Amino acid sequence: MKFTVIGGTGLIGSQVVQKLTTAGHQAAPAAPSTGVDLITGEGLEQALDGAEGVINLANSPTFDEASLEFFRASMHNLLAAGQRAGVRHQVILSIVGVDQVPQLDYYRAKTLQEDLLRQGPTPYSIVRATQFFEFMDAVLSWTSDDDTVRLPATPIQPIASADVVDAVVEVATGAPLQGIHEVAGPDVFPLDELGRVTLAAQKDARTVVTDAQAGLFGAITGDALLPGPHAHLASTHYQDWVQKAG
Predict the structure, then answer these.
(1) How far apart are CA 226 and CA 246, in angstroms?
(2) Whole-structure pTM value
(3) Please, are residues 143 and 151 in contact by the beta-carbon 8 Å criterion?
(4) Contact at 8 Å (CB) between 238 and 194?
(5) 108 and 161 in contact (C-beta within 8 Å)?
(6) What does each C-alpha distance from 169 to 19, 53, 91, 213 come to in angstroms?
(7) pLDDT band for position 63 (cuts 50, 70, 90)
(8) Staple 185 to which of 14, 159, 174, 243, CB 3.0 to 4.6 Å?
């Protein structure tokens, strides 16, 4: 099959392109660096020419209210261009629990993206993943100083990006789901405890202080970010991954 991978030069996108290519498919990355602008539509027609499937991994440059307009404009342009190009399957990567956290601008924006895809003209699939292992350093940096990192005890079930890639490729190369496929890692952690595991593996002497209001995830209550009972659980454990990465 021939795929266009929107955001195909990023953390997930570059791995998706490689995995599809290794499996014998044609996979062309589309990103600003390849001349594609989702907001203006520049380069989209050429990028989608001949594509049977589109895998949309593009991300908003911000996590604030502006992300709503990014996903509104990008989905409008991508769905319209895909219809003109005869694309038969549109796939997006979203977030487990995204529609359970309306108090976060970015999660509302991703929910909007899902809704626009469902209402669009092309058969679709949504892959919802939990938080990536690779993002933990960024999460730690949001609320840290020289001595401490403040994190809430929000339960999360993180997943390795390579396992997300496997799920995206499996879904994209199959029949459109007209629904959602959830993926998560095998283990649940309170976020503050995951911070302690990460710092220990990195031999970082900072202390994690539990703070229910700290950072982006401080706004999330309960088990909103945990997958449902039918989610596919990947096999990579965070403790094993962070020891190798750290």
Answers:
(1) 25
(2) 0.95
(3) yes
(4) yes
(5) no
(6) 8, 11, 10, 36
(7) confident
(8) 159
